[in-house]
Write a structure and sequence with these properties.
Blueprint lengths: L13 H9 L1 E7 L6 E8 H25 L12 H35 L5 H11 L1 H23 L26 E4 L10 E4 L5 E3 L4 E9 L3 E8 L3 E11 L6 E2 L4 E5 L10 E8 L2 E3 L8
Antiparallel strand pairs: 1-2, 3-4, 4-11, 5-10, 6-7, 6-9, 7-8, 8-10, 8-11, 11-12
Helix pairs in contact: 3-4
Length: about 290
């Protein structure tokens, strides 16, 4: 008859622990009258722990998603991202524009009421004419200002050794910054009167000055949207169209690579967030892809 082997002392309890947490418990629901089992459920301690961990991870992920993708994030202490600041600036500009339009409409209705009453005064008619012709006068003033600025700039650079003649040969050793990060969606095509390139970019991406220069035009055009133009040395001019927001004003000096606007989708000729970028040299358009690696 074989003797049983002696039990080893201080044996590890890991197997017992693993068996305990994997041991399944049965939860039963009984019919009180018939003592019949209506529903039952088996669950181990290990399964319960894993289920609680999964639930915790799901709740954390759900909470983070709700905070990030909803306006609730604006109520977090210290939160104030560039998007909120841009919205505030945009709303301020819209409010100012609406106030001007409201004043013009009020003046127009006042003039119409005076005319319909049969007793229009000379002063009111003059005010109405001024109100109607204000846009044309502004355009003429901008054109005269632009002409004077170009003349003064050329006069200042007359004796600069870096300034070339009106030759069509491009100067060497010039560094052009890429105006915005993105993909070219439409190329330079003078035959189609497309004197620049279109760069598809992310919304609210910064537009950078391609070279050092002075801003000589800032404004809004029905086709080009918010536009900014910069006069550079050596006869170069750069133009940036369809912006959402302009960060510079007329007469400002800017450095190469400095933010001057925000990419947008303004103007009737725009069909998406992009920048229309042009470079002119001595009054003639140049393909920006010959100057910059995009």
């Amino acid at each position: 008859m074989k003797k049983n082997s002696p039990v080893k002392k201080n044996s590890p309890n890991f197997s017992a622990f693993w068996a305990n947490i994997r041991f399944k418990y049965k939860l039963s629901v009984l019919n009180e009258n018939r003592l019949e089992e209506v529903w039952s459920f088996r669950l181990s301690l290990l399964t319960g722990i894993l289920a609680l961990l999964a639930l915790a991870v799901f709740l954390i992920a759900l909470t983070s998603t709700v905070i990030i993708n909803t306006p609730i994030r604006n109520y977090l202490p210290g939160y104030m991202d560039s998007e909120v600041r841009m919205e505030i600036m945009d709303n301020a500009l819209k409010a100012d524009s609406l106030e001007q339009v409201l004043q013009q409409q009020s003046q127009y209705l006042s003039n119409i009421t005076s005319i319909m009453s049969g007793d229009p005064s000379v002063s009111k008619i003059s005010q109405m004419v001024d109100t109607v012709s204000v846009d044309i006068n502004d355009l003429n003033k901008k054109s005269e200002t632009l002409t004077q600025f170009i003349r003064s700039f050329e006069e200042e650079e007359k004796y600069n050794l870096n300034v070339l003649t009106t030759s069509n040969t491009l100067p060497d050793n010039l560094l052009f910054y890429r105006p915005v990060r993105g993909l070219i969606s439409d190329h330079f095509d003078p035959k189609e009167k497309h004197y620049g390139i279109d760069i598809a970019a992310a919304p609210k991406e910064s537009v950078l000055a391609t070279m050092k220069g002075r801003v000589f035009f800032v404004g809004f055009d029905a086709n080009a949207g918010y536009m900014i133009q910069i006069q550079h040395a050596n006869g170069f001019v750069s133009i940036y169209k369809h912006n959402a927001l302009l960060l510079k004003k007329q007469g400002d000096w800017v450095n190469a690579g400095e933010a001057i606007a925000i990419v947008g989708n303004t103007g009737e000729l725009s069909s998406g967030n992009h920048l229309h970028f042009e470079v002119w040299y001595n009054g003639k358009p140049i393909d920006p892809e010959e100057l910059i690696v995009f």
